[in-house]
Amino acid sequence: QVQLVESGGGLVQAGGSLRLSCAASGTIFSMNRMGWSRQAPGKQRELVALITSGGFTNYADSVRGRFTISRADAKNTVYLQMNSLKPEDTAVYYCNGDFTTPQAMRGGYWGQGTQVTVSS
Question: What is the 3-state secondary structure (H, E, C) of the chain?
Answer without folding.
Answer: CEEEEEECCEEEECCCCEEEEEEEEECCCEEEEEEEEEECCCCCCEEEEEECCCCCEEECCCCCCCEEEEEEHHHCEEEEEECCCCHHHCEEEEEEEEEECCCCCEEEEECCCEEEEEEC
